[in-house]
# Entry
Amino acid sequence: MTTPPVGTGPLRIVVVGAGTVGTALGNGFLRLGHRVDHALRPGSERPLPDGAGRVDAGPAALAGADLVVLAVPFPVAADVLRDLAPPAGTVLVDATNPFTVPVPDGYPSGLAWLAGTAGPDVHLVKAFNVMGAEHLADPVLPDGSRPLLPVAADEGPARRLVAGLCRDLGFDVVEVGADGAAVTEQAARYWGLIALAGGRGRSTVLVAHQR
Ligand SMILES: NC(=O)c1ccc[n+]([C@@H]2O[C@H](COP(=O)([O-])OP(=O)(O)OC[C@H]3O[C@@H](n4cnc5c(N)ncnc54)[C@H](OP(=O)(O)O)[C@@H]3O)[C@@H](O)[C@H]2O)c1
# Structure
């Protein structure tokens, strides 16, 4: 494991949600030796990855977290974020895509909307949203190819932490500014175009080769 640790030893990662994306990422982080807790709303009976813990979604859920990953449907993401009330300094990875409702007027991306909700002292990073969830836990292909993964945030420690974690998972990471988040949200549609409408199937991922 080479992710730059916030303290020493494994990261404590809180994954908000335990659906398709949340459990894939939870499994991936556990594979790397990190500590994973899933923050779920009361009454949720979602099965968790082996080795993951469960916490109730709310401000107490994020105590001591080195990293928080938001893996809930975009239409509820701002409300979920408000309930979590992430403390200043939180590094929050936004894995959502604004597919079923549009991004509110005045915001260039879902990331920007959620950043406005979270407040200026929470560091949002867009990642994991450009491909199907089945690629997230263990992304390296049988031939050793690594799926392309943009990590969008302004340059700084939060982006470096998330980019390092994504490289450890096995992605070919491209670091871009926060203004790149809007394009990654479109790129998720592009993946759907290729994999679903285009008939290549959900097992398809995009890999970059250089000429
Ligand atoms: N699926 C993909 O291939 C994929 C790939 C990349 C990005 N994404 C994006 O990732 C996000 C999660 O997608 P998913 O496929 O993992 O969804 P999912 O399987 O439907 O899981 C959604 C999770 O969010 C929770 N949730 C739903 N409404 C909530 C609320 N009001 N308050 C608190 N928690 C709530 C659910 O908990 P309950 O058990 O309580 O229902 C569940 O744990 C979406 O924004 C999606 O666009 C999806």
Residues 17-22, 40-41, 44, 46, 57, 71-74, 76, 80, 95-97, 99, 129, 132-133 surround NAP (CB under 6 Å). The mean pLDDT is 96. The first helix runs from residue 20 to 31. The helical segments are 20-31, 74-84, 110-118, 157-169, 181-197.
